[in-house]
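Predict the 3D structure for this chain.
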Amino acid sequence: MKLVRFLSKGQEGWAVHDAATDCWHGTTSDSEVYPGAVDALIRTGGNALTNAAAMMASQAAVDLADIQFLAPVAQPPKIICVGLNYKDHSEESGFKQPDYPTLFSRFNTSVVAHDAALIHTDLSDTLDYEGELVVVIGKGGINISREDALSHVLGYSVFNDGSIREYQFKSPQWMMGKNFDGTGAFGPWLVTADELPPGARGLLLETRLNGQTVQSANTDDMVFDVESLIMILSEVFTLEAGDLIVAGTPSGIGHAREPKLYMRPGDVCEVEIERIGLLRNKVQSRVPANPTVHH
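Done. Predicted structure below.
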């Protein structure tokens, strides 16, 4: 199942994809048959989301050209990001490949949806791209075994982990450079795990800046696969339904190039993962009054 959240005429809604007709069907929250918000259905668990999607499939067609995309999960309890999860990226960044995941958190205030603007701050010119796979947790748990890990995955999506490098390396902790408002793009939709290979293995991941391919890798190249990440994280804290694991970027980042290749206002950055989707965002200067960001 592919599921997209959107805003239409001031109302939030969501829709599911009919592969046979290549059409989307769904409705908005003001409809009498609206089955509830995606986040709430994920938290309910069981077959709640599947049953609601089956009902949505019988609703009117939704033209994606007429809607504003929203992030696939509105309010994830946690956004856990993985650094240095591709050997070639660790090498280009000057780090020894760690034998334990390099982890940091993102805040939801940093997240924007597909087709929304990535915000270029006036504090630094070092906004960099990082194309990544997103794992969406569907069933929470603690001390999850590797063997059971994939049963906790609802689905997958795409992320651009936009990073202000100057602020990322002001201290040993990367939090500040990874959490500027409007720098983390997430979308365009969610693809449930049953439509993809186990652990989203073997998928081509590419990032393009103004049409030029700047990153190209395969999810098989991840040092810590999805099962390992879920097992390691849940040794320490409880994973909750709706949590996101942003699983790391391959080589090709702008910061590692000579000359540096940072994103500038007016640039268009695309991250595409095979069988999942293409996430596109235009870079825009930050304005004095921060715009409202819908999630």
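Helices lie at 38-44, 48-56, 87-92, 165-168, 226-236.
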